[in-house]
């Protein structure tokens, strides 16, 4: 089946009133910093926190009455599961979602709360997928594919339709890629509306499956964990790859640190909670900024479903990388009043001591000396260097733990 802008517009009419018409917002701070105009399409504000509700609504609403009555099956450990569960419940369709064993309880709970039956099967998504296909065959149910389906692609394409209604003169559009459903639909819509627009996909450097298959390579199958699990797809779509090959200018890769930094940037500068996959486009802007300088760029922020513990870790690691939370290891003599002197030096420099570890017993240091590990809140890298210099001048040899992430000197 060949999809066109007519299919995207038909999907837009179908989902009208059933999904959130998310806003497109300018990001002034990022625009100034990168010397370009950046506009973000905020799909993290959808009902289930991700764009997946669009395609799910299109697919489910077009089922026959017999198919709706029998029920549907999907495989997902995240956003697709919630999108299918949400609309299946609204439409009175029984939904069974297969998830791998070990899926976080929060994702299982959210999907069940939306009305679906969750089945935990296998140690991986591949094993869960096989079990789902067996159930579909045994009971003659309808399988809702997460990306390689024309109705799903058309529904996801409504993201670009809305974005270009808000900002019709974009030079470029950046979209995250997992299986490829979102960027395939967006590419069809965007190119029909503005043939001159350039489309760029973004993948985690750990899971560049779509980039690899389009380059004629075998996709990476065991790359380890990524914070962008929403786009960690090992087998990209067959239908989607053809559309991407035709319409997408390039697929950009971003590393884990860039994605983490983008998540932090969203929270601090936009007051937005964004998941790893959702932040991938913004990470690409920073990583490949020279490609977009001086242009008007749209970025799809595809979702905001990040675990609170993961978000906390990202923010703390970001403070360390930015020089706003630093751990000093200070050598000192083990004598009365030394701790007070060190804390006074740090305080006089404007540092705020958060934690102190006084190591006497377990380090290879002389008996009359000690290592003092001090965690300090600081303003920036220059402030870190100021404190380090003050300690050295006062006769306290010091170094920064984990200093590879900081561009400061060492004593």
Descriptive notes:
The protein has 3 domains: 5-51 and 149-318, 3-Layer(aba) Sandwich (Rossmann fold), CATH 3.40.50.1100; 52-143, Rossmann fold (3-Layer(aba) Sandwich), CATH 3.40.50.1100; 323-405, 2-Layer Sandwich (Alpha-Beta Plaits). It starts with a helix and ends in an 11-residue tail after the last strand. The strands form 3 sheets. A 6-stranded mixed β-sheet has the order 1-2-10-7-8-9, with helices on both faces. The chain has a 4-stranded parallel β-sheet with strand order 5-4-3-6, sandwiched between helices. The protein has a 4-stranded antiparallel β-sheet with strand order 12-13-11-14. The protein is built from 16 helices and 14 strands. With 411 residues, the chain is α/β, with parallel strands linked by helices. The chain is 44% helix and 19% strand.
Could you write a compact summary of the structure shown?
The chain is α/β, with parallel strands linked by helices.
List keywords for this structure.
single chain; about 400 residues; alpha/beta; Rossmann fold; Alpha-Beta Plaits; six-stranded mixed beta sheet; four-stranded parallel beta sheet; 16 helices; about 20% strand; elongated
The major β-sheet equals: 6 strands, mixed
Number of strands: 14
Strand content: 15-25%
Structural class: alpha/beta
What series of H and E elements makes up the topology? HEHEHHEHEHEHEHEHEHHEHHEHEHEEHE
In DSSP terms (H or I, runs of 4 or more residues), the helix count works out at 16
**Strand arrangement, largest sheet?**
1-2-10-7-8-9
Distance between the termini: 66 Å
Q: Look at the structure and give the mean pLDDT.
A: 91
Computed over alpha carbons, the radius of gyration is 25 Å
Q: Can you tell me the overall shape? A: elongated
CATH top level of the largest domain is Alpha Beta
The CATH topology of the largest domain, please?
Rossmann fold
């Amino acid at each position: 089946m060949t999809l066109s802008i007519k299919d995207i517009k038909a999907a837009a009419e179908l989902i009208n009133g059933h999904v959130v018409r998310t806003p497109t917002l300018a990001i002034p701070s990022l625009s100034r910093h990168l010397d370009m105009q950046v506009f973000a399409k905020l799909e993290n504000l959808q009902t289930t926190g991700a764009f997946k509700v669009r395609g799910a609504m299109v697919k489910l609403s077009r089922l026959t009455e017999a198919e709706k009555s029998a029920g549907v099956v999907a495989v997902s450990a995240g956003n697709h599961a919630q999108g299918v569960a949400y609309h299946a419940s609204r439409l009175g369709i029984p939904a069974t979602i297969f998830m791998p064993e070990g899926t976080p309880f929060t994702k299982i709970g959210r999907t069940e709360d939306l009305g679906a039956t969750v089945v935990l099967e296998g140690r991986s998504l591949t094993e869960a997928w096989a079990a789902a296909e067996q159930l579909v065959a045994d009971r003659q149910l309808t399988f809702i594919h997460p990306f390689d389906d024309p109705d799903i692609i058309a529904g996801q394409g409504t993201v670009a339709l809305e974005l270009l209604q808000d900002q019709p003169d974009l030079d470029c559009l950046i979209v995250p890629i997992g299986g490829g459903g979102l960027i395939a639909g967006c590419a069809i819509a965007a190119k029909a509306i503005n043939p001159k627009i350039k489309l760029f996909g973004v993948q985690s450097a750990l899971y560049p499956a779509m980039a690899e298959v389009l380059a004629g390579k075998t996709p990476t199958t065991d790359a380890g964990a990524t914070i962008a699990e929403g786009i960690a797809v090992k087998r990209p779509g067959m239908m989607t790859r053809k559309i991407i090959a035709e319409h997408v200018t390039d697929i950009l890769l971003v590393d884990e640190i860039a994605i983490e930094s983008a998540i932090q940037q969203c929270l601090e500068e936009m007051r937005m909670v964004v998941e790893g996959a959702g932040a991938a486009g913004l990470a690409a802007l920073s990583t490949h900024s020279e490609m977009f300088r001086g242009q008007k760029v749209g970025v799809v922020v595809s979702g905001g479903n990040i675990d609170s513990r993961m978000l906390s870790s990202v923010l703390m690691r970001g403070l360390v990388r930015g020089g706003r939370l630093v751990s000093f290891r200070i050598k000192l003599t083990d004598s009365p009043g030394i701790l007070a002197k060190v804390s006074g030096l740090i305080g006089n420099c404007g540092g705020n001591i958060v934690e102190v570890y006084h190591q006497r017993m377990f380090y290879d240091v002389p008996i009359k000396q000690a290592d003092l590990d001090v965690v300090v809140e600081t303003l920036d890298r220059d402030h870190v260097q100021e404190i380090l210099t003050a300690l050295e001048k006062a006769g306290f040899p010091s170094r920064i733990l984990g200093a590879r992430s900081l561009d400061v000197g060492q004593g």
